[in-house]
Amino acid sequence: MAVDYQLKGQAAIVTGSTSGIGQAMARALARQGVDVVLNGFGEAAAIESDRAALEAETGVRVRYHSADMFKPEQIAELVAFAQAEFGRLDILVNNAGIQHVAPVEDFPPAKWDAIIAINLSSVFHATQAAVPIMKAQGRGRIVNLASAHGLVASPFKSAYVAAKHGVVGFTKSVALELARTDITVNAICPGYVKTPLVEAQITDQAKARNMPVDRVLEDVILAAQPNKRFVEYDHLAGLLLYLVSDMGGSTTGAALSVDGGWTAA
After folding, report:
1. Distance between CA atoms of 127 and 167, rounded to whole angstroms?
2. Residues 239, 217 share a domain
3. What's the mean per-residue pLDDT of the chain?
4. What's the pLDDT score for residue 223?
5. Helix (H) or strand (E) holding 145
6. Distance in angstroms (rounded) separating the CA atoms of residues 126 and 93
């Protein structure tokens, strides 16, 4: 039975939403009647096909903006675009992320800078642009996609772990700043989801550890998750919908784990 989260008529931005978790989040919001701005990289025709299909399926307005999360001025343009298109901005989902796996002594400085910029700094820039709009409206919901790696660490992922710990800290700080408004700020901390990013990690981890791919999957990737299953997109979308609805109005500053028990120990 479908749940009505009473979000119809609201407007959202989901960064990094042309594939993976972000795409699932955008679809979940659109299916609840939320107008959505998609963002991310990919082949232009495929992005347009997905955008048009989602709009046709849901009847909401679905737009696309190609802002590069490495570039603060383009992030500001993305937020301004959403407000111009929809006349409001109720929901910001900061999801865009990249990964690189390597020992710290071999970690390319350019990869470090890109991961910090896209996984952490973009969250700041988008939030900074969105908060004045939400304050003027008297309500808003900001959801940051962190990671289990925002709570615990793994080897060979120094930049990603540093960035995601930063996302969790940023989430808490801004939630406190906005605690007396009706703007909530929360982080979702997924375990492993079988996204294109994770698929690439399997290969990278095999190289970094000099292990066969099948062993990496069993002994490295899912070793951290006691239930030994990838997190499903629907599990993350369900938490998102709760957080952005009125039911989630008292949840703010939280880092919520969806990780099959990974961070329970």
Report:
1. 12
2. no
3. 95
4. 86
5. strand 140-145
6. 9
Q: Are 226 and 148 in contact (CB under 8 A)?
A: no
Query: Is 149 in the same domain as 204?
Result: no
What's the pLDDT score for residue 1? 59
Residues 252 and 172: their CA atoms lie apart, in Å, by 8
Look at phi and psi of residue 261 and say left if phi exceeds 0, alpha if psi is from -120 to 50, else beta: left
Same domain, 177 and 105: yes
- Which residue is catalytic, options 160, 192, 233, 242? 160
Element (H, E) at 98: none
- Contacts of residue 97, defined as CB under 8 A and 6 or more positions apart, other chains included, come to 16, 118, 119, 145, 197
CA 38-127-117 angle, 5° bins: 80
- Pairing, β 62-65 against β 255-258: unpaired
Buried b (16+ CB within 10 A) or exposed e, 70-105: eebebbbebbebbbeebebbbbbbbbbbbbbbbeee
Residues 146 and 211 both lie in one domain: no
Tell me which residue range forms the domain holding 213.
192-230
> 208: which 2 tokens?
């970094």
**Cα–Cα distance, 55 to 53 (Å, whole number):** 5
User: In the chain, how many domains are there?
Assistant: 2
Residues paired with residue 231 on neighbouring β-strands, in sequence order: 193
**Which residues does the chain have with pLDDT short of 50?**
none
Catalytic residue status for 233? no
Find out whether 123 and 170 touch, Cβ atoms under 8 Å: yes
**CA 102 to CA 85: how far, in whole Å?**
41
Is residue 261 domain-resident?
Answer: no
Query: Cα–Cα distance between 97 and 118 in angstroms, integer?
Result: 6
Give ∠ CA 175-181-182 in degrees, rounded to 5: 90
